[in-house]
Design brief:
- There is one protein chain.
- By secondary structure, this protein is α+β, with helices and mostly antiparallel strands.
- Helix 1 runs antiparallel to helix 2 and helix 2 packs antiparallel against helix 3.
- The longest helix is centred in the N-terminal third of the chain and has 38 residues.
Length: 228
C-alpha cells in the first residue's frame, strides 16, 4: 500500500478513534452516577438485588450497564456522532485518466492524480451540535442530587461490604439476598445505631445522630472508614 494512502486513511479515521474513547468515558460516567443513585434508593424503597444471574426475586443487570432510558439515547447519539464524523473528514482519491495516443488505451496519470482528506462543513457543524448535547446531558445529570441519606460509596468494596454486614444480635436472615432489601437502622447499642441491609423492617436515619455500619461510622457529613 502507498505510504501516502495509508497516512491519509489514518488521519481520516482519527476522529472515529477519539469518539470510541469518548463513548467509553461517558458510559463509565453515567454508570458511576446511576449506580450511586440506585444504591442510595435502598434507603428509601425496598428493592431486590441486581445481579448477573438472578435467583428468586433478584433482578438482572442492565444491558450496556445502563437503564434503557439512558443507554438507548446514549447509543443513538454516539452512533449519530460517529456517522457525522465519517462525513466530516474522509478520504478523497481522484485519478486522472488520459488516452495514450489518439487510439491508445486510457492510462492513469499519477502526476495529475489527487490523494487527500476532504471535509464537509455542514457535517462538522452538526457533529459539534450533537457532541455539545451529549456533554450537556452529562452535566445536567451530574447536577441532580441524591435524595437519600444513605452514604455514597461509589464502587468501594470495603464500604459496600460494611453496608452488607448484618447485626450480630440478629443473624437469622438466610434468604435476605433473594428478598427485597432496605438499608437503615436495625439496632442500637450505647447510643450508636447499627445500619445494614435487611429484609426485615428498618428505621430511617435521623440527622445529627451517629450510626455504625460494621467498620464505618455514618455521621452528618457522610461515611468515614474505621479499622477494627
Amino acid at each position: 500500500m502507498d505510504k501516502s494512502l495509508l497516512a491519509t486513511v489514518i488521519i481520516a479515521n482519527i476522529p472515529q478513534t477519539i469518539l470510541s474513547y469518548v463513548y467509553i468515558l461517558f458510559n463509565s460516567l453515567y454508570t458511576c452516577m446511576l449506580a450511586g443513585h440506585e444504591w442510595t434508593q435502598f434507603a428509601k424503597h425496598r428493592k431486590t438485588l441486581r445481579v448477573t444471574s438472578p435467583v428468586g426475586a433478584q433482578r438482572s443487570t442492565f444491558w450496556l450497564q445502563l437503564p434503557y432510558r439512558y443507554s438507548l439515547p446514549l447509543v443513538t447519539c454516539s452512533s449519530l456522532l460517529a456517522w457525522l464524523a465519517s462525513q466530516s473528514l474522509f478520504l478523497v482519491k481522484i485519478e486522472v485518466l488520459e488516452h495514450d495516443g489518439p487510439s491508445g488505451p486510457r492510462v492513469v496519470r499519477p502526476d495529475k492524480s489527487v490523494l487527500s482528506c476532504g471535509f464537509c462543513p455542514g457535517a462538522i457543524i452538526l457533529a459539534i451540535i450533537v457532541g455539545t448535547l451529549i456533554m450537556l446531558g452529562a452535566v445536567v445529570l451530574g447536577l441532580r442530587q441524591y435524595t437519600s441519606d444513605m452514604p455514597i460509596v461509589s464502587t468501594s468494596s470495603a464500604a459496600i461490604s460494611a453496608a452488607c454486614h448484618r447485626d450480630s444480635d440478629d443473624p437469622d436472615d438466610p434468604d435476605a439476598s433473594v428478598l427485597p432489601l432496605k438499608w437503615g437502622l436495625v439496632s442500637k447499642r450505647n447510643g450508636i445505631g447499627h445500619c445494614c441491609f435487611s429484609s426485615k423492617p428498618v428505621i430511617p436515619l435521623v440527622l445529627g445522630r451517629l450510626y455504625v455500619s460494621h467498620g464505618s461510622i455514618v455521621g452528618d457529613g457522610g461515611l468515614v472508614m474505621r479499622r477494627h
